[in-house]
Amino acid sequence: MSDRTPAGQFLDAAIGLLRRLRDEEARPIAAAATMIADTVADGGRLFSFGAGHSSLAAQDLVYRAGGLALMNLLAVPGVVGVDVRPATLGSALERVEGLAGTVLDSSPLREGDLLVIISLSGRNVMPVEMATRARAKGVKVIGVTSVAYAAETAPRNPSGTFLKDHCDVVLDSGIAVGDAELTWEGVSAPFAPASTVVTSALLQAVMATAAATLADRGVEPPLLRSGNVDGGRAWNTQVMTEYGDRIFYQH
């Protein structure tokens, strides 16, 4: 029986989006996972970036129990999250030309590394410049975006392109333009965003595949364990010691 409550409708919508990822994004998920496994095996470092709420999915990959220890957050002050005041400052900074390049130039990113860039719309200056400048440095780029924005909105950066146009692999979240799954009588605006749920699940599917890919090659994936289970902290200390030159969040 269908649940027509707002909660039921939202959960049904989210489940539908996740099923689409499973059925339609298997190939790019595998390609992104292979690229991550190659980077780990070849001695490269992993980084993730997202602006505003897209940063939630980026942060979900970093220092995470069950996740790869080598994933580092590429943070841009004022852009990561909504902890700045006013919160609208972060949105404004996404449109500042040159900021992404300055961040990359002062970051540890180097040739042979990999950067995951998350931007729902992919239309602003920050993600496009981040991708183009990173690739110019010899960094592989995985873009996580909604391809629908490229068809239904105009780019908001000087190149006239979208994030999807500057990536080695593109993961399409399938989120509709506007990121609101529900409408309701008496409510003027659509509501109930699903991009965080879907994007996080999409990236965790990639990371799970990357870990299994490494194991299939005979390479122990550098995974973290929960610090709240017996032996977890000792395990994590060993992993961080072994891979300390590729982990930047502990320094």
Automatic annotation (TrEMBL):
Domain SIS: 36-220
Source organism per UniProt: Streptomyces althioticus subsp. attaecolombicae
Coiled coil (UniProt feature): none
Protein name (database record): SIS domain-containing protein
InterPro entries with a match to the protein in the record: RpiR-like_SIS, SIS_dom, SIS_dom_sf, SIS_GmhA/DiaA_subfam
Domain of life: Bacteria
Entries under PROSITE patterns matching the protein: SIS
